[in-house]
Amino acid sequence: MSSSSQHSSKSGSFTSRLASVFKSKPGGKKLTKGRPDGCTYDAGASGSVRQLTQSTSKSAQTGEVWNETEMLHSLLRRDSNDSLASNNKRSNWFDAGVNRKPGEDILFRLPQGLWEHIVSYISPADSANLAFSCKRFHSILGPGPWLALDLPENHQYKVNFLLPMDRLYPDHLFCFPCATYHIRIQKGEERLKHVHTLNLIYNCPNPKQQSKARITPGWTLPFVFVQLAFRGHRYGPEYGIPLDALNRRYKCRNSEWTHQVRYHFHQGHLLLRVVSTCFAESQLPPSLQRHLLYCREDYTPYFSVCAHWRDGELMNNCKCALDHIPPYKETIARQLQKGPQISLALRNPNVFITLCQKCRPMRRCPECPTEYLVELKLAEDKNDPDRLRRFKQAIVVTRWSDLGDGTSPDGPEWKACITEGDTGFDSFKSLTRRGLSGTFESQSGVTIPGQRMMSLNPQNEKKGEEGHNWY
Q1: Rounded Cα gap, residues 449 and 274, in angstroms
Q2: Which of 18, 209, 263, 402 could pair with 369 as two cysteines, CB 3.0-4.6 Å apart?
Q3: Backbone torsions φ then ψ of 38, nearest 5 degrees
Q4: d(CA 373, CA 436)
Q5: Strand ranges inside 144-244, DSSP E
Q6: How far apart are CA 393 and CA 326, in angstroms?
Q7: Of 201, 219, 200, 228, the residue nearest 259 (C-alpha)
Q8: What is the layout of strands, in order, in the sheet containing 391-402?
Q9: By C-alpha distance, which of 98, 52, 470 is closest to 298?
Q10: H/E stretch holding 115
Q11: What is the Cα–Cα distance from 168 to 408, expressed in whole angstroms?
Q12: pLDDT at 345
């Protein structure tokens, strides 16, 4: 070998060696003892291994998730049952009282006697609810709020405290005179019966103090049935009775009057309708008119009325309507049997009657939510053996009333309907422009004749039984 060739090989030996070190070998693989800490790898299709990402879950600058495994797991847990279960577990953890302990300790940090001073500014019912809220307040207040509810002067507060628990006792019924829950004797089988029939809903030591509304002679609506109807409507059949169980159709035992009683729920209130019908003769004297309209036991009307029926024009309107009944149809031969005088008007009397301006309009009681309508209708009397007189005129008195929301017998609507004295209820301000009659009849698609709505007592005279217009 010449000297020049040896020099070139020696001079290029360092660069060639350095290039050969950094030159990648085809098909070669780097050998490592193990996976470096904090790195993840992915093998490609060619079999080469390359480093993908660091194992840090979030970027220090942007906060984005760089770990692909964490990204996939977060997508799987979104809106899934696992996330709901974790949320429920977290909420149960808080409800278990883990973070509630410091808040309860605040109650004991207050000076002694401060809670007693605060309770002195609230009602006995509110103080009992506060002591009933948790064990801490019960230990602070002691049995004082419970003992205060048993005092006679706090009877109404005890009712206000116990009444919201009505949903917890389906087998019991709250008694307002006793302010306690009695066990129902006839659970689910409670039905309205005549006043002369024993009808116990529960064993109560104060049965005479039970509130009730008069429907017709011999029939009343105790407030306990209003409670049962509302409980069945709000909570279910286990708590009360269906509203249809209160509907009745019956005939009066002491007269010829027939009655149809029906109820309807409207916007949380119980509406009542009573249709009373009785056949009437024409040209009745005043004594027979009273005999037709009044019950001789207590001199109350045979039809359904509110407690203010004596004050106003109700009975005068009924007597005026009876005066409009035409005489029966009589042939000339029958007229000649009575005498020589003949009336051609009796041969074909008008059976369609129009009442006058006094008795035709509807009347609204100004002291309670009650409306009346007096009508004359042609009906068939199947009990009359004379076929020529089987179709007769009948007086029909319809009453509509709002009995309230059923929460208490001291409710404004219920109390106004059964109390004769002044309760401060103004029906023309409380009721809307649409009458109770229209509201009730609209639920069955029936329309009543369009009539004016006038006051039952235009002169606002409150003489009661001392007056004479009612009789």
Answers
A1: 17
A2: 402
A3: 80, 15
A4: 12
A5: 172-175, 180-183, 212-216, 219-222
A6: 8
A7: 219
A8: 248-251, 258-266, 269-279, 391-402, 370-380, 362-364, 453-455
A9: 470
A10: helix 114-119
A11: 18
A12: 61
- pLDDT band per the 50, 70, 90 thresholds, residue 383: confident
Segments forming the whole domain that contains residue 288: 247-466
Domain total in the chain? 1
Nearest-Å Rg of the Cα atoms of the chain is 44
Is a pLDDT exceeding 90 seen at residue 67?
A: no
Which amino acid, residue 283? Q
Does the residue 268 lie in any domain?
A: yes
Averaged pLDDT, 298-313: 93
Enter the tokens of residue 143: 């049995």
Please give the single-letter amino acid code of residue 375.
Answer: E
Mean pLDDT confidence for 404-408:
93
pLDDT at 179 exceeding the cut of 50: yes
pTM for the full predicted model: 0.73
336 found inside a domain? yes
Tell me phi and psi for residue 394, to 5 degrees.
-125, 140
Which tokens sit at 201?
Answer: 């809903």
At what angle are helices 3-11 and 13-22 packed, to 10 degrees? 40
In a domain, 116, yes or no: no
CA distance 421 to 459: 17
pLDDT in tens, 193-239: 999 998 999 999 988 889 999 999 999 999 999 999 999 999 999 99
Span 315-335, mean pLDDT? Answer: 83
Q: Please give the residue that has the higher pLDDT: either 410 or 29.
A: 410
Percent of the chain with pLDDT over 70: 73
Q: What is the 3-state secondary structure (H, E, C) of 289-307?
A: HHHHHECCCCCCECCCCCC
Strands 362-364 and 453-455: parallel
Tell me which residue of 120, 160, 164, 124 sits closest to 145, measured CA to CA: 124
SS3 158: helix
Residue holding tokens 């002067």?
A: 153
Residue 330 identity: E
Cβ atoms of 313 and 371 within 8 Å: the answer is no
Q: What Cα–Cα distance (Å) separates residue 151 from each residue in 129, 137, 163, 285?
A: 17, 22, 17, 58
Q: φ, ψ for residue 63 (rounded to 5)?
A: 80, 10
| Residue 446: alpha-carbon gap to chain centroid | 24
pLDDT score for 133: 83
Q: What is the pLDDT of residue 60?
A: 55
Is residue 200 in some structural domain? Answer: no
Q: What is the rounded distance in angstroms from the CA atom of residue 42 to the CA atom of residue 53?
A: 10
pLDDT band at 278 (very low <50, low <70, confident <90, very high): very high
Q: Report which residue type is found at 415.
A: K
What residues contact residue 193 under an 8 Å CB cut-off, 6+ apart?
A: 199
Residue 460 Rama label (left phi>0; alpha psi -120 to 50; beta): left
H helices present in 411-460, as ranges = 412-418, 427-430, 436-442
